[in-house]
What we know:
CATH class of the largest domain: Alpha Beta
CATH superfamily of the largest domain: FAD/NAD(P)-binding domain
Largest sheet: 5 strands, parallel
Number of helices: 13
Low-confidence stretches: 134-160
Number of domains: 3
Amino acid sequence: YRLPREIVQAEIDAIASLGVEIRLNQRLGRDFTLGSLQAAGYEAFFLAIGAHRSRELGIEGVQLDGVLRAIEFLLNVNLGYRVQLGRKVVVIGGGNVAFDVARSVVRQADKFAGMSEAELRVALHQAAAALEELTTKDSEAPDEVRLALDVAREAIRKGVPEVHMYCLENLDEIPAAREEIEEAEREGIVLHTRFGPKRILGREGKVSGIELIRASRVFDENRRFNPQFIDGSEECVECDTVLLAIGQAADLTWIRPEDHLKVTPRGTLQTDPATLATSRPDVFAGGDVAFGPRIIITAVAEGKRAARSIAKFLTGREPVEPRQARLTIYDTRHYRMKPDYEKLARRSPPTLPLDRRIGIAEVERDYPEPEARLQADRCLQCHVSPVFNGDECVLCGGCADVCPEFCLRLVDAARLRSDDKLQAAFLARYGRSPAPGEHGAIIKDETRCIRCGLCAVRCPTGAITMERVELVPA
């Protein structure tokens, strides 16, 4: 429900179109090894195998039937397999994966349970009518196809389980994104904070419940993970399934002694963050297997960084991207930002209605064009900056007067805390350090600047200009 399959396929097709050979259903350590690839003539290797193994929880009852691991569960959901969950599900964890699991559970369930024959007939007739209506139209809107499929799924939507999430953290400590929490609660998932699992209860080899204990704190004084629990605060919750979403780990069982790869205490490949080189010169790694679970854009960046390192390893030369800097100086008479751009509220993209969130239908939708344009108007143009020419400045203070964010100040140069570079600049210009009351200076808080350009417009001597620097292909 998060990343449309067609987008993934488009990205794969783009990579394949570059001439990359993709071999499917091949597993490192089972179908090939680093040694066999080297024997076949390959000279450099990049490991981007992810962290596809769920971390285990060392408590009583984890071996019971009905205890599922997050990654394996999500894999089955994405492969389209039906997972028997029962009527009440408990998810342990508070990260993004835990919310993925909980929200996927809502879309699963024992879906035919409790439906009468009449209800089934009505739902299937609805699906047939929707599909029949589609055949009278052009094949224009994939949303309509998805709607028809959703209506068909309505036949199996009864019996959505009761889903509860338990996590150690307080609401303000939960590592998941705030939007994720809000959407989960909208979908009916009940979140319980400051609870940790003590043991999983079973009857005749199957899960019957879970015993939880309240946490007094999660982190110690140094912000290290060190949960403390309150004795006597245990409580038991009945459930049919327990889903463990307490973290991910890389599967490194394929590593052989002759691979000469070192593993960190965290269970990741020892990797240089700058070059992405491992302990073996011809092997590079990136993404979750190198640094633990992170977001996808970080993995994309590391892939590009690794490509440069591999090119240098193979050729002995630093790859040079033919780029040049392009400078644009704006005419301050015409430099304008959108009215009230700094006051525009950030709005999240629209989402699918709750009753349409079935199966793997994507929840987050596109902005309507007017809203997309409005959100684009919020851009602070961080690639455009006011540039100050001290030779033209008359220290009138007009720029500081008009700055709406108070990020400019006119000060006595003698009051500046100086380092060697500043002292060298004063010596080069004046031959000595500034005396109190002798020279002025403008200081700027870059974190507050909103690129409004009012300082440049106000400057009577043209000492301030709005300039943009871009790196473009040479």
